[in-house]
Amino acid sequence: MRTFVAFIVAPLFSSVVAAGLSNMPVHPLALIVLFCGAFYALQALIGTPAYFLLRRVGRQGIWAYALLGFGAPALPILIFGLHHGAPDIPLGQTIHMVGLFGVLGAVAGCVFWLIARPDKVATRV
Hints:
It is a single chain. Helices cover 78% and strands 0% of the residues. It is built from four helices and no strands. It is globular. The relative contact order is 0.18. The model has no long low-confidence stretch (mean pLDDT 86).
């Protein structure tokens, strides 16, 4: 049950912070929904399989989840920004976005770990 709650709660904080830091001319609630959708999609595509993989190989420390959380949003933004970036978006702004969303993802990974505490779960035989 704790793992389920962690999957639900972990992206919420990062989504609210991302919406608060955004300067897009859109209603803040719409931005929260947009960022929640993006973080939940990344969690479903990358986080859930990685959780089971980390559990299988025995990497249950907070650093593994923070590193995974950093890479999950940062890598797609970096690849998209370098490959499909608009000519008017400078490289520095792309790197800034990678760092920002990477840190927000790392926070989501740490929140997940703090709620689920996968290092405390007894393994079933």
